Amino acid sequence: MDHFVTIRPVTEADTDKIVRWRNAPSVVEHFIYRTPLTAADHLNWLHNRVQTGEVAQFIITDEETGEDVGSVYLRDIDLTNQKCEYGIFIGEESCRGKGIGTAAAKLALQYAFETLGMNRVFLRVFADNPRAIKSYEKAGFRCEGTFRDDVIIDGKAYDMVFMGILKREWEQERG
After folding, report:
1. What is the fold, at CATH topology level, of the domain defined by 5-173?
2. pTM above 0.85, yes or no
3. Alpha carbons 99 and 165: distance in angstroms, whole number
């Protein structure tokens, strides 16, 4: 059973929770870029990336509790090649493992394909994060390959799994 969530556009009023979530160690460990996020950084992102249309970012709300629990985004929106990169973080630890991420991914994909007119949505995920990979697969993403030693963080090399979904695949899955 899918968890019921909604997504709404991120606003300046969400800055404090975005900063808190994004800086939580359990979120940071799954990001390539681990520099602490400040309120000024988020507002800069909001004004220079989101409001320009380069990024579509949303707050995920758990409809069961009415609580905002994380964020989902489509970045590097390329209208020419009709593709963008997907990303998500569930900031509230108590809300992980409940299907919220999968449900939010499905809503973000609907937005990407129906509203933005994308043909392809892709993502990168650490190969040692099987829980996220399983969630992405449930949302319809397919593994496209592993880039070995793709990123170096604190002197350690990590493999990254690239996953993607095409509009026609998404349409077939929806019936």
Report:
1. Aminopeptidase (3.40.630)
2. yes
3. 19
Q: What b/e string do you get for 105-129 counting C-beta neighbours within 10 Å, with b at 16 or more?
A: bbbbbebbbeebebebbbbebbeeb
- Please give the structure tokens belonging to residue 84: 């963008």
Amino acid, single-letter form, for residue 109? L
Convert the pLDDT of each residue in 28-87 to its tens digit: 888 888 889 999 999 999 999 999 999 999 999 999 899 999 999 999 999 999 999 999
CA distances to 51, 61, 111, 127 from 55, rounded to whole Å, are 8, 19, 12, 25
Domain ranges of the chain: 5-173
Our CA angle for 21, 127, 57, nearest 5°, is: 35
Dig out the tokens for 16 from the structure: 């404090």
